[in-house]
Amino acid sequence: MSMKDIYLAELDRASGESFDQLFDDLYLQVDFKWIERALIQGIPANVSL
Predict the structure, then answer these.
(1) What is d(CA 31, CA 21) in angstroms, rounded to the nearest whole number?
(2) Contact 18, 4 (CB under 8 A)
(3) Taking the CA of residue 37 as centre, how many other CA atoms within 13 Å lie in the half-sphere pointing to its CB?
(4) Which site in 1, 15, 23, 43 is 20 to 30 Å from 7, CA atoms measured?
(5) Which pLDDT value is given to residue 35?
């Protein structure tokens, strides 16, 4: 179960969509070096998988 699934189970759909949008917006601010290092280490781009 992903964090989004847990969040949606506890709160309403609109709040879940707001959370998802906020997460996506913050992800875009992550330094690409961190993303690249995570991928090299085998961490998937979508950690909820």
Answers:
(1) 18
(2) no
(3) 5
(4) 43
(5) 84
